[in-house]
Amino acid sequence: MKYNNLSNTGLLVSELCFGAMTFGGVGRWTAIGQQTQDDANTLIKIALDHGINFFDNANAYSGGLAEEIMGSALKQLNVQRDLVVIATKLLARMGTGANQLGLSRAHIYDSVDASLKRLQLDHIDLLYIHGVDKITPLEETMRGLEDVVRSGKVRYIGVCNQPAWRVVKANAIASKMGWTSFKALQYYYAIASRDIEHNIIPMAEEEGLSVLPWSPLAGGFLSGKFDRNITEAGNSRRDSFDFPPLDKEKAYDIIDVMREIANERSVSVAQVALKWVMSQKAVDSTIIGAKTEAQLKDNLNTVNWELIDTEMTVLNEISAQPLPYPNWMVESQTANRVIKFPTE
After folding, report:
1. Is 344 a member of any domain?
2. CA 41, 44, 46: angle at the middle one, nearest 5?
């Protein structure tokens, strides 16, 4: 297991991050996973034994039950607190009250306290805002995040599912005010869904921020269970929860190529999909989830091999997406912008 710097913080996180979305399985989360406390204890122990030090959660997962299960697992496994990096998120509705959702200072305070209680922790290592709150100004959100950092309840902050311009604007506000800025970007990124390469990843590289992909297997579609002949696997969340969206016909083409590589390498299709994401230079940790020990161990084996250049080339070509505007115009207008120095 390799460890990478989270942005420029000096905080080292494992190249694979274990996510808790499958824990609990309450309400709409039933299709994602229904892992019990004993299941979670086993999976987290396996992750720790294989060198993972980074664990991801959200207050929204099963209405907080996933946080409760993870917190109990850390206690029951006697995990030393300073050996793990615990991340969680806030934004989603957590009750019926008018203010029990969003990114107001009030909801930030309340959510952090509630997450700490469920996780049985005295601080959160990395707190993400889970998306956009259109009625709360960014200044208000950044002030709320700064307050929970200064309180000692949160150490670093990150952002999910927001346009690049909002991230840059938020960090500009933080810089102007001397507040804590976002260091981590958690976004949907898979070989069959490369949308963030057009704006999010260039922004991350320019600003020196870490990209931490979620759903690198596209909700299980790239796990090897699906192809043109198998459109319902019978044991995949995609069968009843067809999310996140992707172009399935294009994904089938990608799966065909990944299966060839997997067979040649004696690895799973899922490992090829994961390894492609992990190999992208802006990516510092890739979030995986699991329902079973076998699935988790297979994912973990991805760290033990590398894609060679010819394999990366064919995977990049089959998964390439057309540039959206204005990106294609930028490419066209800057194609000849080369500084040439006179030679003697």
Report:
1. no
2. 105
The residue segments making up the domain with residue 291 are 3-334
Distance CA 5, CA 200 (A): 19
Weakest-pLDDT range from 167-176, 178-187, 234-243, 275-284: 234-243
Residue 343 lies inside a defined structural domain of this protein: no
Contact indicator for 91, 116 with CB cutoff of 8 Å: no
Domain-embedded: residue 73: yes
Residues 30, 125, 82, 211: what is their CA dihedral angle, to the nearest 10 degrees? 80
Catalytic residues: 61
User: Which tokens in the block code for residue 320?
Assistant: 């390439």
Please tell me the total count of domains within the chain: 1
What is the C-alpha separation between 246 and 192, in angstroms, rounded?
7
Residue 126 has phi, psi (to 5 degrees) of -140, 120
**Maximal C-alpha separation, the chain:** 75
- The pair of three-digit structure tokens given for residue 304, joined into one six-digit string: 């033990």
Query: What is the CATH classification number for the domain harbouring 192?
Result: 3.20.20.100
106-129 pLDDT, tens digit per residue, is: 999 999 999 999 999 999 999 999
Q: How many CA atoms are closer than 13 Å to the CA of 196, on its beta-carbon side?
A: 28
Let me know if residue 341 belongs to a domain. no
